């Protein structure tokens, strides 16, 4: 087990994806109540039972939090706090551990040989495991180091004071799914697109239900690593998303993208509607016409199945990647993407 010697960059404790600072246009009546599937931006303050503030968007340098209700990017209790609010309304709720970060799990406290840990570790240092999971150092002994993989708010009741700022109704939101090799880099590319509401990585087109990363990597399940994008069709078109996808993979490389080899790294467009299928087919025809004599192996299929990947894969590069160096996910950013961090 390898660790990153640096501390994990401070992250929001409510969501895995920080806001990009862009307030979306309000497309609904100010009196419409927020519901599952709507995209919202909120200001919030989170406190513990002793009154101490553990996180807030209401301070200089912070921006409102944006997320899709029920999309899995915030804890269940936070979804509940926002649901039913109209723009401009506020709510204050106390959330039990079961609807927050769960109870402390003793199995998430592990010991590793000190010789395999970075030098100079101290109690309360934050480290990142080689699989992307963050951990906190709790004991530094003569021969072993104890790491706690539980969320730092596990076992605690949390109180949230939230205010709904904007709301985009679910009706204008659509999904698109693409396979372009290792899903970390393509996800960051889509995160940067104006009109993309949220991104999620997962496994698609396979024959095994709820596969693990290890199973998918074995090549035995038939899944492809994919990015699933939720986007506002009034701000970005499906063709524009196809352009982003096209720029993130080699369409002539079969079951291989860069140094990643295997059927799970095959390139594909997996459509959610007849309209998407028609547009994607036309797009591929245009690309083939522009690349005479070259075989394009990017597959085009209706989406058959989709399973969300493990939490540590989600927004992996924007959260720090392998080397705890977060890459910019802000809208319009065109910085080069470091595929592994």
From TrEMBL:
Keyword Isomerase in record: yes
Keyword terms of this UniProt record: Isomerase, Oxidoreductase, Rotamase
Stored PROSITE patterns: FKBP_PPIASE
Region of interest called Disordered, as start-end residue ranges on this chain: 320-341
Span of domain PPIase FKBP-type: 37-113
EC numbers, comma separated: 5.2.1.8
Catalytic activity: [thioredoxin]-disulfide + L-methionine + H2O = L-methionine (S)-S-oxide + [thioredoxin]-dithiol; [protein]-peptidylproline (omega=180) = [protein]-peptidylproline (omega=0); L-methionyl-[protein] + [thioredoxin]-disulfide + H2O = L-methionyl-(S)-S-oxide-[protein] + [thioredoxin]-dithiol
One matching Pfam family: FKBP_C
Enzyme class at the top of the EC tree: isomerase
Recorded coiled-coil stretches: none
Similarity comment: family membership: Belongs to the MsrA Met sulfoxide reductase family.
NCBIfam families noted in UniProt: msrA (TIGR00401)
Protein name: peptidylprolyl isomerase
Species annotation: Tetradesmus obliquus
